[in-house]
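User: Teach me something about this protein's shape.
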Amino acid sequence: MAASVSELSGLGLLTWVYPPGLVDRVVAACGCAEQRKRLLPARLVVYFVLGLALFSPAPYLEVMRHLVEGLRSQGLLGAWHVPAKSSLFRARQRLGSEPLRVLFATTAKPMATEATPGAFWRGLRLLAVDGTCWDVADTAANEAAFDRPGSGRGTGRSAFPQVRMAALVELGSHAVLDAELAGCRTGEVTLVARLPRSLGPGQLVLADREFLGVPLWQAFTATGADLLWRVPANRVLPVTRQFCDGSWLSQIRASSDPARNEPIVVRVLAYRLKDQLGEDAAGGYRLVTPAGCRPGGVRAGLSCVARNDLPSPQWIW
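Assistant: First, the predicted structure itself:
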């Protein structure tokens, strides 16, 4: 990404990712097509909002000027002048959020190929689920919609409202395949529980330790995708069957009372990392995968995947 919008020749590249015909179809499907000719047609406003997100925090008028330059170079705009900032505000309000949501859902597809480094393992496409938060403008509307987190000082609150997002990401390309957004008081697990809709066979889904729970595990395994999830350090996973590769079968439950819940059988993989001197680093790691995972090199192969690709917010975002 360029350091500033002024370094760009224009934002016409957005029309390559989101062709005008597709944008027009999405706008029409959402009922946002114009009934009369406007200075700011819905198609242009869609590209404008995408430009604002891509080059934040560039000012409205600067983004629009460079957007117009790019579109005009492709013959998509004739004689046209940049409207006042107030007109841009009103145009965004008319458009709303639904066309952007539908456009994302229509175009969020895997981008990696077999030749993409880190994209596949033994024929399985590598994906990860994780979450992040970011500040939004300090307005009454944003506070009402998203709330503010605590300040970390006991009684205060953050200076800015925050949005929380959980996403399904393709590791090889970092492409976001699905996402759920909510206010900062909504937990990551709640949002991640909506992502199995985008999963299926032929995928290996990685997740960090905060997501390991029976309801979420069942929802993800029901899709046919393979899973490899990290285990919290305090989680007890007794051995019910030991394998020669060092892994073992164990059980996880939704409740500590065995009479209340049927156990879920998982295969546990434990490993340690080496430090720069080649010595075992402090502590170890445990991963779980469905009990019926593919045999042969499970411990070595899957641990290798996790060492390189187990997600963290800093790594993905």
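Now, about its shape. Residues 120-316 form one domain. The chain has a mean pLDDT of 82. If you'd like, I can walk through any region in more detail.
User: That's plenty for now, thanks!
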